[in-house]
Amino acid sequence: MAPPRTPEPKFFLVDDLYAQGLERYAEWFKGAAPHQLAGEKSTNYLENPPSAERIARDLPDVKLVFILREPAARAYSNYLWSKMNGLEDLSFGDALDREDERERTVLPRLRFARPHAYFSRGLYADLLQPWFERFPRQNILCLRCEDLALQPRRLAERLHRFLGVPLRPNDADGLGVINPADREGAQQPAAETLGLLRARYAEPNRRLARLVGPDFDIWS
Predict the structure, then answer these.
(1) Is 95 exposed, middle or buried (0-12, 13-18, 19+ CB in 10 A)?
(2) At 132, phi and psi to the nearest 5?
(3) What single-letter DSSP state applies at residue 183?
(4) I need a surface site. Which of 42, 114, 159, 217 has the fewest CB within 10 A?
(5) Residue 144's beta-bridge partner residues?
């Protein structure tokens, strides 16, 4: 995997990085052996159509893996992350109500972090559409984040088969904390707020199910 892992490479996202050319990108994989597959992890690619255009142009045969979390839980986890990093002082409900306004005025230094994009980042069908339009369906794998905890070995097997590498079940062992914002004992959102949020996601989730097909077990 390309460094850095934290923060992420973001090569196809950041204009100044991309302007350095694919030779610069290739340097991140110079340690790979001839028999190894090379890859990278940059979560912001999903929500950035220009990244889809660049990757389709430069790496048309690439295999893409998107790990999606139930969107209401993802939104609240995002909220906890923003609070943890001193970027949020509103209640979860108020933050959802003011999302559009705050997204329009986000500081340039936070344009990729988007600390207040709680609802919009869970509209997965909309976010995935540019990728499905540009890449063969067989080159896209969508997995559920919950399965990292619920069935990690099965998830790893699906990933390995998709990549065409020998199965490595031990890769799924000892994953530890997936998201530090979801620490044990973290305050939970009001049930009414969470219910309203899940109702807002019902129709987008139906569109997601139609887009990705029956292999993805959509959240009930």
Answers:
(1) buried
(2) -65, -25
(3) -
(4) 217
(5) 68
Q: What six digits make up the tokens of 135?
A: 């890449």
- Residue 97: count of CB within 10 angstroms of its CB: 12
Contact 62, 51 (CB under 8 A): no
CA end-to-end distance (rounded Å), the chain: 33
Q: Are residues 14 and 69 in the same domain?
A: no
Within-domain flag for 220: no
The total of structural domains in the chain comes to 2
Task: Supply the range of the domain harboring residue 23.
Answer: 1-41
Distance between CA atoms of 52 and 30, rounded to whole angstroms? 24
Both 69 and 108 in a single domain?
yes
Let me know if residue 218 belongs to a domain. no
Within-domain flag for 134: yes
Q: How confident is the model over 67-118, as pLDDT tens digits?
A: 999 999 999 999 999 999 999 999 999 999 999 999 999 998 898 889 999 9
3-class DSSP string for 97-112: HCHHHHHHCCCHHHCC
Distance CA 161, CA 195 (A): 37
CB of 155 closer than 8 Å to CB of 81: no
pLDDT recorded at residue 185:
62
Residue spans of beta strands (DSSP E) within 69-189: 140-144
